[in-house]
User: What shape does this take?
Amino acid sequence: MGITRRISNRKNRITANKPLLLLLKFTALTVLFLLSVSVFGTNKTNDYKVGANIPRLATGSDVAAEIPDGTVIWNLGQHDGSAAEFAASGTSGSKKIFNVPSSALKSSALQSLPAGLNGKTQPELTITYQLNKIPENGVLFSVGILDAYKSVPQMSVFSNRQLSGIIQIAGVSGTESEYSFQKSYELYIPKEQLKLGTNELKLQTVRCLYCSDKEDEYSWWTWDNLRLESLNAPISEPIHGSYTLTGTVVNNKQFYFDEGAVTHLPYVIKWLGMAYSGNVMRTSCASDVGRSCSDMLEYYKVLKDYNMQAVALYLHTGDIKLKADGSLPADAEKKLTDYFEQYSPYFQYYEVDNEPGLFNRSKAVNLAIADWLNKKGKQIAPHLQTVAPGWAYWPSYSEDSCGNQKGTGKECGDPDGWERDPEQRMELEKVTDLTNGHSYGDSYIFSNGGSFTENLKTFTGADNGLGKKMLTTEFGTSDSHVDAYQYGATERTAAVFDRIMRAHIGYADMFVQHAAFFKDFSLFKYGFNLEEHDPATTEIYYTKENEDSRVSIMRRLSLAYATHGAPLTYQIANKDVLADKLVYVRAVDTSTLKPLAGSGATSNKVLVNFVNFESTPQTVSVNVTMPKNGVYEGERFGNGDTYEKARSYVTGKKATPTLTFTETLAPGEAVQYILQPSTEVKPSAPKGFKAAATKGLAVKLNWLEAPGASFELLRAEGSGGEMKVVATDVKLTEYTDHNLREGTLYTYAVRVSGSNLLSDKVQITATGLVPLDRTKWKVSSNVNTAASAPSLAIDGDRRTRWDTGKHQASGEYFQIDLGEAHEIERIDLDSTLSPFDYPRDYVVYISDDAQNWNKLTSGKGAKELTKISFSKVKTRYIKIVQTGSGGNYWSIQELQVYSRE
Assistant: This one.
C-alpha cells in the first residue's frame, strides 16, 4: 500500500516540476477526452465501443464492495494529485454550469470548471451531458478529493433532480497536519435516475442538519478529478461514497455479556438499522472480570443469526509478565487459546489491546499478543484479521497523567508515552491487519492525539485513503461534548455526534460507537440491570432536552451508509415533489451478501430505507421491485422514544414484484422495513416468557418478540388444567392479567396469533404481593461496610453483593430504612451466586424510629434464596440480625421487601 511514502515529498516533486507537469497534463487531457467524452455521443453505432475500458482505481479502504469495471462517459481532470487544470472555485472564471460536449472536449475548457465547491462562494456545480442510450447497469460517479476542511463537508449529488446520495468528505485542512489526506469517493446512480438526451448531474454543498449558514465558509473541498462511467455489469452494492460498517457494544453494567445483554442485543441492532448487513459489534468481555463472559456463546450466536460480525477483545494485559524470549507466559496463552477454541468461529477480528498508553500497558506485551495472534490465533481461526490496539494516543506521564500506576515510577505505558509516538505505533501496525484509533467529540482532528491526524502521522499521509483498513473500536460523544460554535448549530450536542460519525464515514472503514448503555456516552437510558429489564421498553437517552438523540442520528446514518446488499430497482412516484430534496432511498437484497468469514452467517432479508436529510417533513412514495412475486411481511422501524413505539410488524405486503411504499418523514427521520416473503418466515414460539406479580391481584406477563403481528395468551388454573385463551390480538410483548383469585396457582403460555407453537409455560400464585420501590431506601450494617457497601444488596445486580467479609458470627446485622412507613408481608434474601452464604439463623426486628426495636420473626436461612414471610405489619425500619455461626460469609446479592400497596 506504500504506507511509508511521505505525501509531502510527493507534493514537493509536483510543485518543483509544475511547468513541465502542466504541459504534460494538457497533452494527456486532449488525448483522454478524445477517447472518453463521446462514449454515448451522436455516433449511435459506437455507443458502447468508442469509450476506453479502464480499470477502477484501487481504494485502500474498500472492505467488501465489489464494483465492476466501467466504460467512461466523461472524465474531467486527471487523477494525479493536482487541481491545476481547474479554476479556483468562486472566481469569475469558474462556471456554475458545465456542459460536457458530445464531441471531444478541449483541455482549455477545464479552466472554467471550479477546482471544488465552497459553501460560501460556490456552493453548486451542474454538469450536463448527453446520453443516447441509458446504461443498463447504471453509472458510477467518482470524485478524487485532494483537500477539504476538517468540518466533514457534505456533497449532495442529484441526477436529474433526484438525490443519488450525499458524500461525506474527510479533510485535514485546519488541523495543522503536515500530512495530506486524499481519497476517491464513489457513488452508484441507478439507471432510473438517468434519461435519454440531456442529463443533469448537480453537485452541492450541504449543511449539517442542525447548522446555520455560518457553516458555509467551512464547507469546502478541492477535487483532483470528476468521472462518470457506465457499469459493465450489475453492481453488487449501491456504493454511497465508500463502503462502511458500523456497530456498538451491548453489555450489561459496562462489563457483562450475560443473559440481559443477549436478550437486548437483537432489539438494539435492529432498531439502529445495523442488522443483516454484515455490520460489526465489539465483544469485549474481559478475562479479569468475573462472569464477564457468562453468556458469550449465546451472544455470538445472536450475532450470527442477524448476520453481524464481531471484533473481540478478551485478554487483560495489565498483569502479564513476558517470558525471557519476549513471548506470552503460559497462563496468558491458555486464556487466549481457550477463548479462541470456544468462540473463534463467531468473530472475525481480534483487537490487540485497549488504549495501552492511557491504561499504562506495555508495548512489548502488545507485540507478544500480536505475535501469538499471527502464529497461533490464525491457526485456530484461519479467517481471523488482527486489529491494532484501540489507540488513545496517550502522551508521557509528565504531559498528561494516566491511571494504573504501581510503585514510585510514574509512566503512561512501557516505555512511557510510547502510544503517542508514530514510529512505536508502527511496530504494531506492521504486525496487524487493520489499524484502529479511538475518538470522542472532535478529538479525531486534534493535531496531537487525534485518531485521524495521528494515523496520518503513522502512515505518513494518505494518497487514496489510509494505508490500512481502519476499524475504530470506540467513537462517540459524552454528554459534555458540543459542536464547534463557528458552525452555528442550534442543537450542538446532537451536531457533534452527527459530525463525528460522518467523519468516520469519510475516512474509516468500520467504526463502533462506544456503548449502547453507558453513563454519559449512552444511546439508551441506562442505570439498571438488563437481566431484570424488558428489552421492548428500551428507551432513547436524550443528551439534552429538545435536541436530537444519538439514536436518531445513528439510525439516519446507518440506514444511509451501512446497510448492504444488491441494489433493488425503485421508481419514485412523486419525483416532482421531491425534486432537489435531500430525501434518500436505499433498497437492498441482503441475500446476495457473501457468507461472513468464520461464522458463515447469511441473511435473506430485504431492507428498504427512507432517510430525510431535510429540516422539514417530506412525503416519499416509491415503487420498489422486490426480488420475488408474492406476499412479504416483517418489521418497520421509525420514530419513537421506546423500542415498542418505534417498531411495528407489517403483513400482507403484496409484490407483483413491484411493492409501493409511502412514508411521511419527520425532519431527520429514518424509516426502515425489514422484509421477507411470508412463505419463508419460520414459525417460532415466543421465548423468554416471564410472569411477575403486579399491584392488586394481577400478574404481568412479558416475552421476547417472535415473527407475527400479534399474540394470544393462554391460562390454566393449577398445574394440569386446560389451557384456555384469555387474550387475543395482543400487539405488544407484554400483558397484564387482572381479577385473579388470591392463593390460586396459575399456569400461562403465549403464542403468535395463528400459530400452535406455545412458549414455555410459567406458573405463579396470585398473592397481590409486589416488591417495594427501593429508590428512597437507605441501607447500613455493622460489619465490613468499607470493603462491601450495603447498597450493593439493592442495586439490581446479582453479580454485586454485600457480605460480612468473614465467617458468620452472631450479632451481625443488615438494616433497611424504607424512607417512609409501609405495610409489609415478606422479605427475600437472594444469595444465588454464592448459594452457601445464607444466614444460618436470623431474627427480624422492626422500628418506627430506628431506636426502639420490636422482634417480628425468626428462623433459619435457606440455600440460594431465603424467604421470610409474616403477617402484615406497618413499619419504616427493618433490621435483620444474623444469630448463627458458620464457615461461610453471610452474603446478600439482592434484597427485596414485599407489600400489597
